[in-house]
Specification:
Helix content of chain A: 40-55%
CATH class of the largest domain in chain A: Alpha Beta
Oligomer: homodimer
Number of strands of chain A: 5
Radius of gyration of chain A: 23 Å
Number of domains of chain A: 2
Structural class of chain A: alpha/beta
Distance between the termini of chain A: 54 Å
Largest sheet of chain A: 5 strands, parallel
Shape of chain A: elongated
DNA sequence: AAAAAAATCCCCCGTATTGGGTTATACCGA
DNA sequence: TCGGTATAACCCAATACGGGGGATTTTTTT
């Protein structure tokens, strides 16, 4: 029996019913063990030092320290632990905040509860489990607007500007004259109805032109 | 029988064995129909105008026009069609290029072939099917480096710089003096060992400090 | 082949920004 | 208490910036 080395899990979730439900579900699965569960981050940060789980299921909507703020704190004491976010809302900002801070997976509670087990297995295998709606949000964030008013060349130049390059550096790098770059930038500003690099970048990012 | 309105699919894939295999597999599934299959993009672009499929399975490694270059061309004539990329290699650049150009899903051929059917269903439902390894690449691209040499304040300022803001705008916005911003930038440059905004942004992005 | 769009280059102007040098103070967490 | 952090000051020369006028050539579309 491989029960000697189960995958260890800690649950941080304020709703007692859900917490106990997940605990029961996971413990009932062979090769998985819930070491501990907490109803808030404050307690968890103390207990986790001893628990040292491989995977943490972390609710986003928590009293006190929110789940997202907890991620860096957890990563600080347990850098190798995988964190899977649990939430009822698939708020876009939350998704990206959690991911940039180091969450490895993101599930909405509307998912079939058995998916939790699959997700735990998946992060341990180095994967990145996501609910269907979360995957959609993530993928959509990559999609560029196909209806940009900017031409190819203008888009190229605006991308360079967004990378912090000066007009003269852009000119050298693109093998065109500084005056040409200036012309393009003027046209970009007119098309985007802005008067500065800053606003051009903001406008372009908002509309996913770059 | 709901066979009257099957999910319509077109396959673009140069390997005849795979092409025929997928065609057979999909046609054998109730409620799915392969309208056509092509061995190259050139032919596909002509035929697609009539086919008008809901979903296209698109190989990345194709002779002539590559799969990635095909995406915008396909989107141009069929903006509403979902595109699922198929590939043997999970090359990072390819993944992000395909996604920014508008691919909705990304599967590696090492996946269980039955997953294809699930993926087709998933994009039609507005989802974003990904292989486990692809999901991992995507999620990892969001993760920030936790070992940044920059302080919180320095990181904040560098982010503003990356947004194209001038020192004076940063100062106003952060309610600190212009001289303070200058000091922070000087320190950022020293820590990152650079001498310009451009290089600071590049270095910070390379190391995922911002 | 003609018209339209995109890309290229030129000159002018005044103001603001940039990178770099040096020093200093208040605060705060280990 | 000590180093790191955030704050601020003063100096300087070089350049980058936004905006105003054009003009020409290449490419694309019709």
């Amino acid at each position: 029996m491989e029960n000697k080395n189960p995958i260890t899990v800690v649950i941080i979730e304020d709703d007692e019913t859900i917490r106990n439900g997940f605990t029961y579900l996971i413990n009932a699965t062979e090769n998985y063990k819930v070491l501990n569960s907490y109803s808030n981050v404050e307690d968890a940060l103390i207990g986790l030092v001893n628990d040292k789980p491989q995977v943490i299921l972390l609710d986003i909507e928590l009293p006190g320290i929110k789940g997202i703020e907890a991620i860096p704190k957890i990563k600080h004491i347990l850098p190798k632990t995988y964190i899977i976010m649990l939430t009822v809302y698939d708020n876009e900002d939350n998704v990206f905040n959690a991911l940039t801070k180091g969450a490895s997976g993101y599930l909405t509670k509307s998912d079939n509860t058995e998916k939790i087990i699959d997700a735990i297995q998946e992060v341990v295998n180095g994967g990145a489990p996501m609910s269907m709606n979360i995957a959609k949000i993530v993928i959509k964030s990559f999609h560029k607007n196909q209806n940009s008013p900017l031409t190819k060349r203008e888009t190229e130049i605006l991308e360079q500007i967004a990378n912090g390059k000066s007009r003269s550096k852009i000119a050298k790098q693109m093998f065109i004259d500084l005056e040409t770059v200036k012309s393009h930038i003027k046209n970009i500003y007119i098309k985007l109805n802005v008067h500065s690099r800053e606003d051009a970048i903001k406008e372009a990012k908002n509309n996913k032109y770059i």
